[in-house]
Amino acid sequence: MIHSRPSVTALKGRRWVFFLAVLIGLQFLTFSHARSQTRLITDLVIEGAQTVDAQLVRNTSGFRVGSDVSRESIQQAIHQIYGLNLFSNVQVLGEEFGEGVRLIIRVTELPRLDKVVFKGNKELKEKDFGLTLRRGQPVGPHALQEARRKISSAYQEKGFFLIDVQTSLEPTPVAGEVDAVFDIEENKPVGVEAVVFEGNQQVESDELRGKVKNKPRSFLKSIFGGGKFNREKYDEDKTEIIAYYKKNGFLDAVIASDTVMLNEKKTDVTIRYTINEGPRYYFGESEFTGQSVLTEEQLRRGLKYRPGDVFNQEKFEESVGNLYTLYQEEGYLYARVIDETRTTDTTVSITYEISEGVPAHVHRINIAGNTKTKDKVIRRELAIYPGQVFRRSLLMRSLQNVMQLNYFSNVVPDYNVLPDGRVDLSLAVEEKPTGQIQVGGGYSGQDKFVGTVALGIPNLFGNGQEANISVDYGSRRQSYSLSFTEPWFRDTPTSVGFDIFDLERTWDEPLIVGTDDYTEDRTGFGLRLGRRLTWPDDYFRVFWRYRFERVQFRDFTDEYLEENINNSFSLEKVQWPQTTSSTSFTVSRDTRDLPEFATSGNRSTYEIEFAGGLLGGDWNFTRHFATHSRYHKIWKGFTLAPVFRLGVLQGGADIGAIPHSERFYAGGTRSDGMIRGYDDGAIVSRVNDSTVTGYIPGPVSGDLIADLVTGDGAGRYKPYAAVRGRALGIMNAELTYPIVSQQIYGLLFFDAGNVWLDVSNVQLTDLFTSYGFGFRLAVPGMGTLGFDFGIPNRGTEKGKLKPHFQFGSTF
Questions:
Q1: What is the CA radius of gyration of the chain?
Q2: pTM above 0.85, yes or no
Q3: Contact call for residues 363 and 424 (beta carbons, < 8 A)
Q4: What are 340-373's pLDDT values in tens digits?
Q5: 458-496 burial string, b = 16+ CB within 10 Å, else e?
Q6: pLDDT tens-digit profile of 364-389?
Q7: CB of 421 within 8 A of CB of 370?
Q8: Is 105 exposed, middle or buried (0-12, 13-18, 19+ CB in 10 A)?
């Protein structure tokens, strides 16, 4: 006799129960001992299991040879085998065998999935559905129904309430395999027609509407795809509404009911919130008990409110956090603050019961995640040490110092409390690619295209040392350089380093109007020494540098004017090449949180350089250069960073007393004279006094003399001649936003500045200005790439968009 259970899709309601009862009843009526409620199983056979292990079916059924079989055990066996989700049909057959019955369990396996096919889905992709269907798994009606539910849910969260999903299994050429096909009709998303608030007497509906993300559809929102209903945001909106109420003193506010009503056309919904506001509460007096380490005055400084202020849940929670921070700063990690509120009418008085505990000392500091950087490179940056009382400020300063190395993308601190009350600190670092091997090209407005072969290693052998070797070759620039820096000489906070360089550069500067290009040859070396200070604070550093440079200008034209050879500005006056021997001192203070893409802190530097005198060389001058930058995180990731640069050159009455290569010029993306929107070097000073004299850098032509000098043999400049100046003032302001944190940034900028012949000529109303936008990309192996687009407010290119590109290093 056959005992079977039809497929799941055919079983419905009472018919399914009745049919199963009849089958089970018939099976027992056909046994030879019809009156017996159980029979002995003398044999057990599994049929139809081809890819599924027969032993799995046998074990799942619960039947064993030698055991009894009953009506209940058959029913349970069928249910359990179906529960495997491997079969579309299960049958139980029984026949006489020996002294008992042979049970035959016959199964029909579900088809195996080959692939999943989606049709009609345009707004959402397969990854948005979160399906768990995988190739090779058994697939049946239950799996399809679950997948359909997930697809519909994903669409409804995006506002597609009219979604229709049809499912089917289509056979493939391989026997036993099928494709799961989902035919999706998306229809239009449901929009938000209105957001209605009821019961709000003290908070305006427009205020509340501004806090929700499901906003009513408007003309502009329709154009840009807004105003769609989002189920996920709907739940978030309810939380935001109550948070806003509590921020404004309504501690008892609740959403009594909320509904989403679809209109008759099924195109838009109306969201309705019914609110019970309750009274508005105010802060009363605050009391402290149990404190001994900190005074009440110190604790009150941590409160973000005053008596009489409207009660603000955020300020209250921030105040509790500040109290913990105050105790952590004193090393009391185990301090507990229990706040007890008392309400009188609409006044909330708060008592902070403090259990201070004992101060925690640092036992051990563990470093993890540094696969390249040696432990000592990290440890020497730490401001907290084993044996010290744990202070939160020292931990935060340590994290800042480690991030300033620019070797890591993140540093995550943690601590573990030991049984004796001490703590083990751990710093988990995430190293980022720091070495830069660049074989390629770069472009700038001044140098055009330049091929580059460079090796930059800012963390040499994991020791924190920095080495750079580069070769640049282009039609306007050829350079070779080698530099090395040891930041911790003999394990002290002393840096030493050297630079060797050779540069040949062709200039096309508007400061010499009407002339051909000229070439600058520059060769030299530098020695560097630096030291971290502990006074006035440990953010200060000082640097000393010696520089020796040999400079020559050549190739102005192929012809010389014989009558001008002996003029005061000619080759007879200035013999080439010229040498500069100088020493400089720099003091800096840097409190930025990151060396790149900083969001807080500031950086100030002042450098003074002396050339000539006892140092020798052909030039005698003094150079002052100061910079100051501040970084402010202002709103939702936006950072505002103004930067100021001032430069002054001193040395002799005439401008010719200072070499051409040392004088200031601006324009383009020069780091010390950046005014975007203008050509590189386009902004120079203007001679407004015909008595000013000076040399011309190299052999000269008639065009050069006609433009710059009077031609009377005295070497005086013509009025309004353009030359590099001895005074510089630059202001740059950037508003940056992280598109991808520490990788891709967008920015808006405003630049202003000028170059003047001398300090006496400075006029702050006479500035070149520009504005624009740009991008920064941090590319492993190349460094930071910059793309800026500036619009100048002066000159012949006024109002025109000018691009500035910086590939690899800034030229």
A1: 40
A2: no
A3: yes
A4: 999 999 999 999 999 998 899 999 999 999 989 9
A5: bbeebebbbbbebebebebbbbeeebbbbbbeeeebebe
A6: 999 999 989 999 999 999 999 999 99
A7: no
A8: buried
